[in-house]
Amino acid sequence: MTTPPEPHAIAERELCCLVNGLAQQIADHVRERAAVLGLTAAQATALREMAGPMTMRELAERMSCEPSNATFVIDKLEKQGLVERRSHPTDRRARHLVLTPAGSASRERLLELLAQGSPLAGLDPEQRRALRSLLEQAITRSWPAPAKATT
């Protein structure tokens, strides 16, 4: 005879399914909107995150990826004339990524497209603030280390 799952485990699984479903809807939305501009989802994410000059490491952090992956994306955007690498103003070892005028225009258009039909569009500002707060709490919460099994 198997033991039925605890209500907490069921609630946890259901919540994880909802978060994963929302993440998939957002990813699909970004991919669809990026395609309108002839971009990949990763390129769109890079453009969305480039609100100002930044290093590759900063961009990679914002994109939640490794710097080598961000470099690959930026190489493609640079070939399209949307991004330039410039000397960093205070660190001669680093390069600053800067949007070109065409890149700024593409970013603005992308932001407009992303706002249209967003999976979060049905939430009012207060609901968005509440969701943001709850997600931040879930992400930054310090979980205790799992207990070690004793033998």
Main beta-sheet annotation: 2 strands, antiparallel
What amount of the residues lies in strands?
Answer: 5-15%
The global form is elongated
Mean pLDDT: 89
* Strand arrangement, major sheet: 1-2
Q: What's the total count of β strands?
A: 2
Cα end-to-end separation: 26 Å
Return the structural class. Answer: mainly alpha
Number of helices: 6
- Return Rg in Å: 20 Å
CATH architecture of the domain at 39-119: Orthogonal Bundle
CATH T-level fold name of the domain at 39-119:
Arc Repressor Mutant, subunit A
Order of helices and strands: HHHHEEHH
Low-confidence stretches: none
How would you characterize this protein structure?
Strands 1-2 form a two-stranded antiparallel sheet. It is mostly helical and 151 residues long. α1 packs across α2, α2 crosses α3 and α3 (56-63) packs across α4 (67-79). It has a domain at 39-119: Winged helix-like DNA-binding domain superfamily/Winged helix DNA-binding domain (Arc Repressor Mutant, subunit A, Orthogonal Bundle). The radius of gyration is 20 Å and the shape is elongated. It is built from 6 helices and 2 strands.
